[in-house]
Amino acid sequence: MSRIYQIRIQQTLDSTWDEWFAPLEILPQPDGTTLLSGPFADQTALHSVLNKIRNLNLELLSVTSIEPSGNRNETE
Question: For the chain, which residues score pLDDT lower than 70?
Answer without folding.
Answer: 1, 68-76
